[in-house]
Amino acid sequence: MVKDKIIVALDVPTKEEALAIVEELGDKVGAYKVGMQLYNACGPEILQAIYDRKGRVFLDLKFHDIPNTVASASRVVTNLGTFMFNVHCCGGSAMMKAAVAAMREEAEAKGIEKPLLIGVTVLTSLSEEELQGEIGVARAMREQVAAMARLAKESGLDGVVASAREISVIREACGDDFVIVTPGIRPRDAAADDQKRVKTPGEAVADGADYLVIGRPITKAADRTAAVEAIVKDMEESIQNQ
Ligand code: C5P
Question: What letters, b where the CB count within 10 A reaches 16 and e where it falls short, cover 16-30?
């Protein structure tokens, strides 16, 4: 269903604020993104509280460490019943392969549905100057994004997080059978907030995004259910016009 493409970013500091949103929206959206702020404030219990309200969880902790440590953490979050979690591609193929193997083993051993394992290619907050000048990457930004996406695919990851403007380069590098999760989404009439390059939900779906991460346009809306319904409508219209 189209609504399953929506992942609501729970960028709030407390369990109460997060659960008020989940209470209101339940399974009207595909999943809720729990990032390092909420997870570090509440601990893993926040996941069960979301499940109790019919929500699924994208655990956005962006693991980046030695393969053994990332594999161990991947086992833990698989056990927590996450629907999706992520690692940094620049941890390398050994790290990504270790995460995939640990996740699969744990899911099979426990009879849990396998979560989607997603890679972060290059943080979109980084400019090309920072990527090359500070971090010392020789490739241009687009090439680096494509290379990291390819490495993620070769390592067995299910997909990557990418801004909507990177979708075409990733599709070219990794094909259609690769999940793309896209933030920076703004309905036509919504404030851009601090996002610089935004796409509407319909545009992102037309560009080929599989999941859309949407925060403030939903969480800060006066009527969150109406905001979700309008987003679903925009996506449906875009799919019909394809
Ligand atoms: O409120 P808003 O819709 O801007 O929230 C977008 C969410 O997606 C936030 O949790 C933000 O950290 C995340 N994100 C992003 N841009 C990226 C990667 C993640 O906005 N490149």
Answer: eebbebbeebeebbb
Centroid of ligand 1 to alpha carbon of 87 (angstroms): 16
Quickly tell me which residue has 């999940």 as its tokens.
Answer: 179
Other beta carbons within 10 Å of 51? 15
pLDDT at 192: 87
pTM of the model: 0.96
Give dist(CA 145, CA 143) in Å, integer.
Answer: 5
What's the pLDDT tens digit per position in 147-177?
999 999 999 999 999 988 899 999 999 999 9
Ligand 1 atom index nearest CA of 162: 21
d(CA 180, CA 178): 6
The domain ranges of the chain are 2-240
Looking from the CA of residue 220, the nearest atom of ligand 1 is 1
Q: CA–CA separation, 214 vs 183, rounded Å? A: 6
| pLDDT score for 164 | 87
Catalytic residue among 62, 153, 196, 220: 62
Fold of 2-240: TIM Barrel (3.20.20)
62 is catalytic: yes
With contact defined as beta carbons under 8 Å apart, do 162 and 204 qualify? Answer: no
User: What does the pLDDT read at residue 217?
Assistant: 97
